[in-house]
Amino acid sequence: MHRNRTYLVTGADSGIGALVAERLTEAGGTVIRCGIGPGLEIRADLSDPAEATRLAAEAERLAPAGLDGVALVAGIAEPSPRTVRLNYFGTLAVLHSLRPLLLRSAAPRAVLVSSASSLSAGAADLIHACLRGDEAAADRAAERAIAGGRGTVIYRSTKIAINRWVRRHAGGPDWAGSGIPLNVVVPGIVDTETARSTMLGNPAQARVLAEALPQPLGFPGPVAAAAAAVAWTVGAENSFMAGQLIFVDGGADVILRGDEPYRRGVRYRPAALVRMIFWSLVSRVRRTSRSSGRR
């Protein structure tokens, strides 16, 4: 599956990224682990454009024959413009800068990691600024969200923008047209150390999250499931899939969207949360009625 392949994984110092790197190594791959912690092959803060450029230069030095797979897992959820710079602009800067190394492989693959929070409503001005490539405007939009007491919308807005960017470009000449399957893995809330120390650390907040993002297969979910999906998506077997958003979210996507586009986003405010729960119950009743009708 991964033997004799060379991979680069960002965010490899913790959580999903660390487990992805571990799985790829155990399967026989050579892994260049990137992050901000100690003991990694490349240490780089991808919220800094210069660091993203340096990462690519280091990857060239460590893998002159090229990369077979790139898994961009690094991300933060701070209510600050730094989240925009890392999750969106830094991630895409690394992706583009590593493309020449991917083109040296006979079977290159690339995968980005998003979040099931992207099912919720984001800040339209921030999303549109990201997709235009206007980092200054995106920073201003993030600052407006913070000033308006909506700093938590920044994280999911960056993930919505990443999802949309991949859907727009994965089938184009730079990616599928060049033989590089590019996809996105979209985890739900999984049991990482970061999640436990932040959003899951407060029982009241954890209950709100569990209601807003229902995961019938478990809340929080297992980190291993998300890591396995990333590892497969970046592997040689994944040769015929491009531009897909692969939800590994315990069933949240299907609960919230059913068989229709999900148009009732939530901003984690009381009224919106009530609406989201209501439509989740309506969808459940509809599915139950359909099942009863088929008997």
Automatic annotation (TrEMBL):
Keywords: Oxidoreductase. The keyword Transcription does not apply. Pfam families: adh_short_C2. GO terms for molecular function: oxidoreductase activity, acting on NAD(P)H, oxygen as acceptor. InterPro entries: NAD(P)-bd_dom_sf, SDR_fam. Signal peptide: none annotated. Belongs to the short-chain dehydrogenases/reductases (SDR) family. This is NAD(P)-dependent dehydrogenase (Short-subunit alcohol dehydrogenase family). The lineage of its organism: Bacteria, Bacillati, Actinomycetota, Actinomycetes, Propionibacteriales.
